[in-house]
Amino acid sequence: MDESELRDLLEQNHSMSYGWALSCCHSHPEDAADALQEAYRKILEGRARYDGRSEFKTWLFAVIRNTAAGERRRN
Question: Which of 3, 11, 15, 32 is a plausible cystine mate for 25, CB 3.0–4.6 Å?
Fold first, then answer.
């Protein structure tokens, strides 16, 4: 998948992704925005890679969940 396709998929799923990040961050909007931004950064920099073994949304939500958990541990 090239970067353009990846960006399109991220844009298509953005509103659901923010809702999921908000849930993962216990309804703290600033934390959710930070976690989502970091998850997007991981994806676009290639530190998290979609391998096609699951639906894109399932994979994306796992990246967001793991990123939010990592942010909570760091803080």
Answer: 32
